[in-house]
Amino acid sequence: NNNNNNNNNKLNVYISENVPETSEKEKKESRNIMQHAPRIPILNVNNGNTDHVRICGWIDSYAKKYGVGYLLSNKCMGVYFNDSSKIVMCPDKQTVFYIDNICTGKDEEQQRSSIQEMSIGNYPSHLAKKMTLLLHFDNYLRQKCENEKENKEEEREKEKENENENEKKEEEVGGGKFERDEIVFVRKYVKTKYAISFRLNNKTVHTIFMDKTQVVVFTNSQTIVYIDKHQNKQSMSLCQAFNSQSKDLQKRMKYTQKLIEKGFRSR
């Protein structure tokens, strides 16, 4: 916990000193550049290798001012900015994809975006601040995850030999550079008094409750992962989850369903 607090303080200091407010002139310049970029349908991944990618860590301390940073189980790092643009860095820490909505239809599937591929060392000047935030969110979250992993290893007994199928798939996902149709990113997120929920473009919905329980709905495979208050992990079908005898799980499934039906559509 002390390590996490120290990292958070360092991030606070760095951002306050190195990420100035975006001027109206810079915002206008960014909009003009993106309006002339090629437009293609927003990515909606249907790739077996990406079906079980989920959120591993996030930081929303700067959500109102900048956006939400997150780390995925495929080792990609991303930021959902408060202007609804997104940026994702591949595990090679060189390849970056920037996604910006140009226009939005009534149906989410009709959204159109400009998607640009760039590198850490070569990107448009108007994205300098967003790139700076990406790199420092990345440093903070990876350090935080390492600290949490070390703490768990100290408390954990020998790991079980038999991992469930979803966990195996998550471990298999990851690498250096991904192609554009393999990129997974947060399409939308919503935060309430009780939870924060992320909707990914691979149709996964990952809800983390304030009591540290989690529900991950893998829509493509019609399965879920439930992490209870004791951090025990269970995998089951959607049907089993909704018919579970566990009142805690049923309550969280209904809340997640409510967020999907109302929370995401209203954003």
From TrEMBL:
Give the organism's phylogenetic lineage: Eukaryota, Sar, Rhizaria, Retaria, Foraminifera
Family annotation (SUPFAM superfamilies): Polo-box domain (SSF82615)
Keyword presence, Magnesium:
no
| Source taxon at top rank | Eukaryota
Determine if Repeat is one of this entry's keywords: yes
Signal sequence, renumbered to the chain = none
Instruction: Provide this UniProt record's keywords sorted from A to Z.
Output: ATP-binding, Kinase, Nucleotide-binding, Repeat, Serine/threonine-protein kinase, Transferase
Q: Which CDD domains match?
A: POLO_box_1, POLO_box_2
Annotated protein name in UniProt: POLO box domain-containing protein
Q: Which GO terms describe its molecular function?
A: ATP binding; protein serine/threonine kinase activity
Q: Which species is the source of this protein?
A: Reticulomyxa filosa
Tell me the InterPro entries matching this sequence: POLO_box_1, POLO_box_2, POLO_box_dom, POLO_box_dom_sf
Recorded GO CC terms:
nucleus
Q: Where is this region: Disordered?
A: 148-173
Q: Where is the POLO box domain?
A: 58-143, 185-265
| Coiled coil regions in record | none
